[in-house]
Amino acid sequence: MTRKVLGRGLSALISDEEQKRDYIDQLDVGRIKPNRYQPREEFNKEKLNELISSIKEKGVVQPILVRPSGNDYELIAGERRLRAVKSIGYTQIPAMIKDVDDMNAIELALIENIQREELNPIEEARAYQRLLDEFSFTQEMVGQAVGKDRATVANSLRLLALPKKIQEFLSKTMITAGHAKVLLSLSSAEKQIELSKKVINKGLSVRALEKLVTKKKTAKRTAFTEDSNMRSIEERIQERLGTKVRINHGKKRGTIQIEYYSNEDLERILRVLNCI
Fold first, then answer.
1. pLDDT at 212 over 80
2. Stretch 5-14: mean pLDDT, rounded?
3. Are the beta carbons of 133 and 158 closer than 8 angstroms?
4. Is the pTM of this model over 0.85?
5. Residue 240 CB: number of other CB atoms within 10 A?
6. Which one, of 276, 269, 244, 239, lies nearest residue 257 by Cα?
7. Catalytic positions, please?
8. H or E, element range at 2
9. Are 67 and 105 in contact (CB under 8 A)?
C-alpha cells in the first residue's frame, strides 16, 4: 500500500483504484471478528449513542472495512459502527472487503482511527509508537501518513513519558493534553502527579497550571541559589577558622555552628576571632 497523506474517512484511506478492486457487501454481523490490532481502548458512550440514533434514522452511511479470515471476516476499521449496529439488533452491515496482510491491516486500523480523531491523546501517542516500532516508521513518516507535522507527532509521543497515573487521567479526559504538556516540564513524577490531582480537584485551566508550575520552579531556583550562597559562606568561614562550620539559615534568623575538638582548639578559634 502506498503511503500518503490521508484525509478523513474510509474513502481517503483507500484510493479509487484500490476501491475498484475491492467490493462492498452486506455481511452478517455474527461473521465479523474483532480487530486484533484495535488501537482504541476507550469508547465514549455519549458518542456511541449519537451514532446509534443516526443509524436508526439514516442507516449505515459508510461501510466498515474488513478482510477475509477463514470462512469469516476480521474487522479492520469501523468498530463503533459495528457496535452500534449490534446494539440496535441489526443482523447485517455494509462492509468493504479488502484482502490485506497483517502489516497493512494494522496500518489501516491505526491511521483510520487517528484520522477520524476518535483516539484520546494517549491512544493516539501509542498508535504513533506502534507505527514506529512495528513498521520502522520515522516520526517524519508518521506525520506524512496521518497528515500532521513531525513536531506534532513528537509532542504526542512525549506524553508516553508521563507516569501511568497521569496517562490514565488523560485517557479518561480528567485532564487535557494541554495540562499534560505543562506537567512534562516538571522533572519529578511525584510533583507531576500532585499537580495533576490539583487540576482535577480544583478544575484548574491550562493557564492556571502554567502559573502554578512557574511559581514552583521560581521558588526552587530561589531556594537553590540561597543554599549555594550559604555553602559558599560556610566554606569561607571554615577556611578562615580551620574547623567545620554549619550555617542554619531561616527566613528571619539563623545560627552559625562552629565545631572545636579540645580546649586548645577553642582557644585557637577565639584568637582568630580576636576574642582573646
1. yes
2. 45
3. no
4. no
5. 12
6. 244
7. 79
8. none
9. yes
Model confidence over 49-78: pLDDT tens digits?
A: 888 999 998 888 889 999 999 899 999 888
Pair 160, 129: CB distance under 8 Å: yes
Residue 76 burial (10 A CB sphere; 0-12, 13-18, 19+): buried
pLDDT above 60: residue 238: yes
Other beta carbons within 10 angstroms of residue 111's beta carbon come to 22
Distance between CA 247 and CA 168 in Å, rounded? 45
**Paired sense of beta strands 64-69 and 245-249, if any:** unpaired
Place of cell 459495528: 82
Domains of the chain, each with CATH number or no CATH:
10-161 (3.90.1530.10), 212-272 (no CATH)
Q: How confident is the model at residue 34 (pLDDT cuts 50, 70, 90)?
A: confident
pLDDT band at 8 (very low <50, low <70, confident <90, very high): very low
The residue type found at 169 is F
> Do residues 27 and 73 touch, judged by C-beta distance below 8 A?
yes
End-to-end CA distance of the chain: 92
Spell out the residues 6+ positions from residue 135 whose beta carbon is closer than 8 angstroms to its own: 103, 106, 107
| Contacting residues for 15 by C-beta, under 8 A, at least 6 apart | 2
- CB burial of 146-163 (b: ≥16 within 10 Å; e: otherwise) equals bbbeeeebebbbebeebe
